[in-house]
From TrEMBL:
<protein>
    <submittedName>
        <fullName>Uncharacterized protein</fullName>
    </submittedName>
</protein>
């Protein structure tokens, strides 16, 4: 577990999105993993856990597969290379069925996390860190695989007051102040909403 520190040297209260960029599917929008608001003249310290979590949301109704009201079990992992499968499962009395996520230690691809859908209907795959999505949740078509390289860096950007964690980030907005930050580093925020913002990693 490590941290990043945000130091606000402005007289205002900027809203800072912390996020990763999808590497395997760069056309996907980034989502706000965390939102921090360091107070004027103060700082905010954000903890970055070393482990991740994977699970899927799904439907039990073949006539309405988009009604993903159910959630599979969640699996914690800390490896940079991992393979998971979403598959069908029946209760012991065979009176109920659903989906579960299992970890597969075969067919690993170096530095990639895979989530394969063998459930029979589309599911929504989640890769989380500290219980929040670090990538936009994706529909995984039956037989398809969600793939991501979770080694990607964290980024910071000043966003509007109406941006919350889990929301997709608007590229035109974050590109103005987007700054890469490594775990353990400190970023200094200066400027204002009137003159423009600047983020520099110290």
């Amino acid at each position: 577990m490590s941290t990043i520190t945000l130091v606000n040297e402005s007289a205002e209260l900027p809203r800072i999105a912390i996020y990763k960029k999808p590497i395997m599917r760069p056309s996907l929008q980034s989502v706000a993993w965390k939102i921090a608001e360091p107070p004027p003249g103060g700082e905010a310290v954000v903890t970055v856990p070393s482990d991740f979590k994977v699970f899927a949301r799904y439907s039990k109704d073949p006539n309405n597969p988009e009604a993903t009201r159910y959630t599979t079990n969640q699996i914690d992992f800390a490896e940079l290379t991992a393979n998971f499968v979403v598959t069908s499962v029946d209760s012991q009395d065979h009176q109920a069925s659903g989906a579960e996520t299992v970890q597969n230690f075969n067919e690993l691809v170096l530095n990639e996390v895979h989530v394969e859908n063998r459930y029979g209907m589309g599911v929504i795959g989640h890769i989380q860190q500290d219980d929040d999505d670090i990538y936009q949740p994706q529909v995984i078509t039956p037989g398809a695989v969600l793939m991501e390289d979770i080694r990607s860096s964290l980024y910071l950007a000043v966003v509007s007051e109406f941006t919350y964690k889990g929301q997709r980030l608007v590229q035109a907005e974050i590109s103005l102040t987007e700054t890469e930050i490594l775990e353990g580093q400190t970023a200094v925020i200066t400027g204002s909403q009137w003159s423009g913002w600047d983020i520099e990693v110290a």
